[in-house]
Amino acid sequence: FFVLMLSPSFFAKVLVRHVSPSFADALVMEPSDDPISVSVCKEQHSQYINSIQQVLPSLQITELNEDEKCPDCMFIEDTCVVVGDIVVVTQPGDPSRRPEIPPVRQFWEKLLAKNESTAISKVIIMEEEDSEATLDGGDVLFVPDRDFYETYPCSTIWCGDLFVGISARTNERGAEVLRKAFAPLNINVHNVSLS
Question: By C-alpha distance, which of 100, 124, 127, 109 is closest to 184?
């Protein structure tokens, strides 16, 4: 799943992508003797979306269709990083995941063109910024500045740190694209070596 936050204290949109019929062929870090049941995964994913709707009924949920050619497409959080009104569409480190990018890019660019309540002011395409940069959004963690938000609980200003795990799928050049992209928001970007 993916969450777009309009302000640090207000979640506005959730973007999800359905489980691919080819999910059994998804990338794995460690092989398992137990085969993946795509039907069970689809049911769990549906329950997950329903849970989000029940807990946060005011959220607008956008569901992108699955793609049989993209077994990992349900892991949509790997395809973009959003802080405030800036979106970075990533370039996954594993080339087999790059076909997941076009529908996600199209979603964000369409939202930008609509200019819905100035929710998105900029969509940055990592590949266009640096063709050698790679980044999986799942390697990124945003940590808000707790002291700032306790002092200013209704603030719409973003304040905090992004920690970027440097791995086989996310390189330092990808982290640098994030550093430049989120500099206007005064977000600190820290590289964390995972090796």
Answer: 124
* Backbone conformation region of residue 186, classed left if phi is above 0, alpha if psi is from -120 to 50, else beta: left
In sign, the C-alpha dihedral spanning 95, 180, 74, 104 is: negative
By the 10 Å C-beta count (0-12 exposed, 13-18 middle, 19+ buried), 4 is classed as buried
Using CA atoms of 21, 80, 112, 185 in order, give the dihedral in degrees to the nearest 10: 160
List residues bridging with 5 in a β-sheet: 11
pLDDT tens string 100-131: 999 999 999 988 888 665 578 899 999 999 99
Task: Find out whether 63 and 48 touch, Cβ atoms under 8 Å.
Answer: no
**Strand boundaries in the chain, DSSP class E:** 2-7, 10-17, 60-64, 80-83, 86-89, 122-125, 140-144, 160-166, 187-193
Considering the entire predicted model, what is its pTM? 0.89
Task: Tell me the CA distances in angstroms from 154 to 18, 62, 158, one per residue in order.
Answer: 34, 26, 11
Whether the Cβ atoms of residue 126 and residue 179 lie closer than 8 Å to each other: no
Please write the tens of the pLDDT for every residue from 9-28.
556 778 899 999 999 999 88
10, 24, 30, 39, 45 from 42: Cα distances, Å: 29, 12, 21, 5, 5
